[in-house]
């Protein structure tokens, strides 16, 4: 039995930078052209419970006279090991300054210097200072700015604690979405006949579901990052590209027995912090002329090499050369997190760090408007998408800007498509039953962490793919399930797709490093 059918022109799943910016650009474009529009933003948890909120570093966009589009393009392609789509790289980088002006117009408050100009900083792989930021909590400021702008449009409805569990498309091209409203994490759902199951339909659907970090044992991602959009898009017929291009951030805070890992921003290295091994040696110059500021794949592999040679599971980040005022001004949250979590004063003590899963450089294959090539009316924006910008390794701080510019391009295409649309009649739709399998999350995380980590081996990838596929095939179907169990099922499917993709890669590029291809 279905209750509560509602119809919108556009449904956007996910409320990080990509989802919120898409809603704003759509609402602005509709207002400009006196077009009525109905937009539903859906958040699995609370609207601010996103990876965007936790982004520390910042937003990359050329802004100074010493810098240039060409330099930002070179840095992006160099980090991406040349696997980038050159047309998209140029298009994004040239659009970035205008996107920053949009953010400023929406009221974002970023750090400025005493002369009133924006305080641009550097991160790994960038030749010039071009990272716009708010101390070490840029994501928090960005999320708040976008949420405020969204609240100014009556055309945007936002629902929280609403988990989309199924998406289908009918013969007329309408998307039908089954969701559970006001869920709690361990409530169980027998066959979705509960009263809080809702049916939403729409003409245009945007997947802005973010990352899939929970498939690994250690990640900087938030617990919502379970790869939902990847599985929905696959079920709708989309192509996945380079899903095994998983970026590990070199400096997650080392805390034994923690899954959610606190990020120690690369901006600290941008300000001069250096990596040291167990013996205190500044080892990065042995690996790359850019030393601690080399691109992330190089730094992560170097750290793993140093860890292998040592007796400890981490290396150190030494920020003691930075002045106390720089740390307090630029890194207040990192300073207090290290104090609270490990009792470390980063002005005086080295920070134990190790590489942890951070970002998915591949994803759902999209065109230059964020449209999913095989599924008309479906868009994927932000981390969930493979746009061609990142190639085989994302340059630091290129992801938030990607989310904003693609949101703008997708909105411009959708608004045109909707111009002559008549309102969708409310129609009943019979969803297929959802079969949720009983999967042990820790098992999936162990397979991915052990066999699809920073350094891979073909035999391990085969083992991971075969054993995880078998585990999934023979897993029991649950009679009733909680959302956590539904997410565990998704994580297993995502893990299998990562192994499958990893086995198709034929060369070591960027974050993809297979010892057997050396
Ligand atoms: C960081 O602050 O190091 C993360 C920034 C990013 O991933 O782009």
Please, could you describe this protein's structure?
The protein is of the alpha/beta class and 518 residues long. It has 3 domains: 3-12 and 22-204 and 219-245 and 361-417, FAD/NAD(P)-binding domain; 253-355, Succinate dehydrogenase/fumarate reductase flavoprotein, catalytic domain (Flavocytochrome C3, Chain A, domain 1); 441-517, Methane Monooxygenase Hydroxylase, Chain G, domain 1, CATH 1.20.58. 34% of the residues lie in helices and 17% in strands. The protein has helices spanning 17-32, 69-79, 86-105, 138-151, 228-236, 267-270, 296-309, 324-330, 332-342, 399-418, 441-451, 458-474, 483-504, and strands spanning 3-13, 39-42, 59-60, 131-132, 156-159, 162-169, 175-181, 188-190, 197-207, 240-241, 246-253, 274-276, 315-318, 351-360, 363-365, 378-380, 385-386, 480-482. Strand 6 (162-169) and strand 7 (175-181) form a beta hairpin. Helix 1 (17-32) runs parallel beside helix 10, helix 11 (441-451) packs antiparallel against helix 12 (458-474) and helix 11 runs parallel beside helix 13 (483-504). The protein binds succinic acid.
Main sheet summary: 7 strands, mixed
CATH class designation of the largest domain: Alpha Beta
Query: Termini distance?
Result: 56 Å
Note the beta-strand portion: 15-25%
**Which spans of ≥5 residues are poorly predicted at pLDDT below 50?**
none
Q: How many β-strands, per DSSP?
A: 18
Total count of domains: 3
Provide the helix percentage.
Answer: 25-40%
The computed structural class is alpha/beta
Count of DSSP H/I helices: 13
| Shape, per Cα inertia axes | globular
Return Rg in Å. 22 Å
Average pLDDT, rounded to a whole number, is 93
């Amino acid at each position: 039995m279905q209750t509560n059918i509602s119809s919108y022109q556009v449904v956007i799943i996910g409320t990080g930078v990509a989802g919120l910016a898409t809603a704003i650009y759509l609402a602005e474009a509709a207002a400009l052209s006196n077009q009525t529009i109905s937009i539903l933003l859906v958040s699995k948890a609370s609207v601010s419970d996103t990876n965007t909120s936790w982004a520390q570093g910042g937003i990359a966009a050329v802004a100074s006279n010493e810098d240039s589009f060409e330099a930002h393009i070179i840095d992006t392609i160099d980090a991406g090991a040349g696997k980038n789509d050159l047309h998209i790289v140029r298009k994004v980088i040239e659009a970035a300054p205008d996107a920053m002006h949009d953010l400023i117009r929406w009221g974002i408050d970023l750090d400025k210097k005493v002369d009133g100009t924006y305080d641009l900083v550097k991160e790994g792989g960038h030749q010039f200072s071009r990272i716009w930021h708010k101390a070490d909590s840029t994501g928090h400021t960005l999320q708040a700015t976008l949420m405020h702008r969204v609240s100014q449009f009556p055309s945007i409805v936002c629902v929280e604690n609403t988990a989309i569990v199924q998406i289908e498309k009918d013969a007329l091209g309408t998307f039908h979405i089954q969701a559970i409203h006001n869920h709690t994490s361990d409530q169980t759902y027998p066959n979705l006949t509960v009263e809080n199951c809702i049916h939403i339909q729409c003409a245009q659907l945007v997947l802005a579901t973010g990352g899939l970090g929970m498939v690994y044992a250690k990640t900087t991602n938030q617990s919502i990052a379970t790869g939902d959009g990847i599985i929905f898009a696959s079920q709708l017929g989309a192509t996945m590209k380079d899903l095994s291009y998983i970026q590990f951030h070199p400096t997650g805070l080392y805390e034994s027995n923690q899954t959610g890992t606190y990020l120690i921003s690369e901006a600290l290295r941008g300000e001069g912090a250096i990596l040291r091994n167990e013996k205190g040696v500044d080892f990065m110059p042995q690996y790359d002329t850019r030393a601690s500021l080399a691109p992330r794949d190089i730094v992560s592999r170097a750290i793993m090499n140093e860890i292998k040679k040592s007796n400890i599971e981490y290396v150190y980040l030494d920020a003691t050369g930075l002045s106390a005022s720089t740390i307090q001004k630029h890194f207040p949250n990192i300073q207090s997190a290290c104090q609270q979590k490990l009792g470390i004063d980063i002005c005086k003590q080295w920070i134990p760090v190790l590489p942890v899963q951070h970002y998915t450089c591949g994803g759902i294959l999209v065109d230059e408007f964020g449209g999913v090539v095989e599924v008309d009316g479906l868009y994927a924006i932000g981390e969930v998408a493979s746009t061609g910008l990142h190639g085989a390794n994302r340059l630091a701080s290129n992801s938030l800007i990607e989310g904003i510019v693609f949101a703008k391009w997708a909105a411009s295409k959708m608004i045109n498509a909707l111009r002559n649309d008549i309102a969708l009649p409310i129609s009943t739709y019979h969803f297929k039953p959802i079969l949720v399998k009983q999967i042990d999350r820790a098992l999936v995380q162990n397979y991915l962490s052990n066999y699809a980590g920073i350094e891979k081996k073909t035999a391990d990838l085969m083992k991971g793919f075969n054993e995880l596929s078998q585990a999934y095939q023979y897993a029991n179907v649950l009679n009733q399930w909680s959302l956590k169990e539904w997410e565990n099922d998704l994580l297993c499917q995502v893990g299998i797709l990562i192994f499958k993709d990893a086995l198709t890669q034929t060369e070591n590029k960027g974050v993809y490093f297979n010892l057997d291809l050396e």
